[in-house]
Write a structure and sequence with these properties.
Strands 1, 2, 3, 4, 5 and 6 form a 6-stranded parallel sheet that branches. α5 links the parallel β4 and β5. Helices cover 43% and strands 16% of the residues. The model has no long low-confidence stretch (mean pLDDT 96). With 187 residues, it is an alpha/beta fold. It has one domain: Flavodoxin domain (Rossmann fold, 3-Layer(aba) Sandwich), CATH 3.40.50.
Length: 187
């Protein structure tokens, strides 16, 4: 089983890069799970523009995201919260990806996690991020996880410092992998 994992943040020192790194390490501990840990910068693309799409097609960054999504059995996204909502870069990536036929996200199991310095732990962004994924037919895992006060949540190695948060993330990822296996059916 292959899982594409990325933080929907461009900032090098992003809390969400730390969170997705921790998630990738947990996923790698699961037998028969291969993790494609991507840097969101690999998927650079201009703002979606239908005229640009007609002239030039889907940009290279969008094609790369489409290819990697198609080759994955599931996708784990760690999203920041910008002004109480989904980051524009992530929404833009979803918009471009949805232009491929067939849409690689249709039927794809998605897990949403997030971290933010606020007390809500990116929960508003997580709920807003569900919407476009669900509209294009992805199977968004019902449970999500937000890490509040992210500026205090990680140790010097980039790992969650609170054992309860780590256990919650680990349990969520294990149950998500079971969900992906059930959707895939027998191998």
């Amino acid at each position: 089983m292959k899982i594409l994992a990325f933080a929907a943040s461009l900032r090098v020192a992003s809390f969400n890069r730390k969170l997705i790194g921790q998630a990738a390490n947990i996923l790698r501990s699961v037998p028969d799970v291969d993790v494609d840990l991507a840097d969101f910068r690999e998927f650079e693309m201009p703002m979606y523009d239908g005229d640009l799409e007609l002239r030039e097609g889907i940009p290279a960054g969008g094609l790369e995201l489409i290819k990697r999504t198609q080759s994955a059995d599931g996708v784990v996204v760690s999203t920041p919260e910008y002004n109480g909502s989904i980051p524009g870069t992530l929404k833009n990536a979803i918009d471009w990806t949805s232009r491929a036929e067939p849409t690689p996200l249709e039927g794809k199991p998605i897990l949403l996690i997030g971290a933010s310095p606020g007390g809500l732990g990116a929960v508003r962004s997580l709920w807003h991020t569900r919407v476009p994924f669900e509209v294009i037919g992805a199977h968004v895992y019902p449970e999500m996880m937000g890490v509040p006060r992210a500026h205090q949540a990680f140790d010097d190695n980039g790992n969650l410092g609170d054992p309860n948060q780590f256990s919650r993330l680990q349990g969520l990822l294990f149950s998500y992998i079971d969900f992906v296996r059930k959707l895939r059916g027998p191998s």
